[in-house]
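Entry for the shared binder. Reason: the reviewer on the internal report wants the predicted structure included alongside the sequence.
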Amino acid sequence: MGREDRGSVRRWLLVGAVVVCVLSLAPAATAASAGVAALQVALRAKGLYPGAIDGINGQLTESGVLTLQRRAGLPPDGRLTPATRRALGRLGGPLLGRRELAVGAVGWDVAALEFTLRRYGLPHRAVDGRFTRRTAAALQRFQRAMGLGVDGIAGPRTYRALASRSGAGRNAPPARVHVVRPGEGFYVIAARYRVDATSLARANGLSLSSVIIPGQRLRVPVATMGAARPRPAPSLVHTVRTGESFFSIAAVYHVSPWQLARVNNLSLTQVIVPGQRLKVPAGAHVAAEPGAVARGTVRESLDHWSGVYGVDPKLARALAWMESGFQQDVVSDVGALGVMQLLPETWEFVDTVLLGRRTPRTADGNVQAGVRYLRWQLDQFGGDARLALAGWYQGARAVRDVGLYEDTKEFVRIVLALYGTV
């Protein structure tokens, strides 16, 4: 066929581009998106994205967009406006499906196409927005598999085949969908449906290090549709003794005071009385881990790093006390770690974007990363402590887009109530 029906290009722009753009810009909340991958490629070329080209719109991607907008003198709202695309330069456009692509082409559409061709042998490192012979070879493999003319050129028929391929699963049996609730992670959701956490993440085009947020919809692997829901594991129960509080009980079991209250459907500020029975959160252990750090040492670390990063130490201490009771060996059921209860991906964001180096995975390193992340949240909201705490708990973007969730308001209220008391 040679170069794919050049005379059909106008027809393709009107008909084929619609479905192709859907393929390119699929929502990143539930799956890897070729459009997000193209954005990551463009940001990396500007030195603003140090992560993997994975098509997941996570914190590193969002931070890169905000930095780009600030440098270009644009409103830092994180939205991919036409002006933001122009600021990305040559890799900021056009969208996939707007032109014919062949060796030598450079642009956003090339990066999006390359991302979709990884399953046809294109190496991950070759997803760079530059259409090379290697790109053409992968495209030829796709064309051959789809019964198209094999010329290594992306034109109308190839684009329609790509769109068709992306929708090939539509006739498959419907998958169960889970809507993420606050505090849930892959492991908690996977246990609920009796599936492997890694399989759950992959079914949504994500990895276990991806951030999931309340309201996000996750597909549960189809193979588990007929599986019975597992019986919940027996909960450890503590009977409250005279003089005990959420914080003292949390210290006994090395769990988060906040989580201890939540699993009992209570507020951390509620009064508990002797004889009351409390469920203990997952991850509880009575003996302290070897090398446990004294609370006085943690307090000194919090004050030190607060001074370094210009954070009110009373605020940092209140947040740390709320999260862990100053305990380094607390690990939540969603994988949050240590004194500041940092998720692994948040800690990685701090190291990669905010500090530019890896902090030690120790109590002091945890505090340093946590206080630096609190400083970043304060900067996002002009120093407003209430909104910064909400961003800490809920995510800065979610705070800006939808406001504070009810449990976020409770979290913020209690941290502010602890201000100056620890």
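Summary line for the report: The first helix runs from residue 9 to 24.
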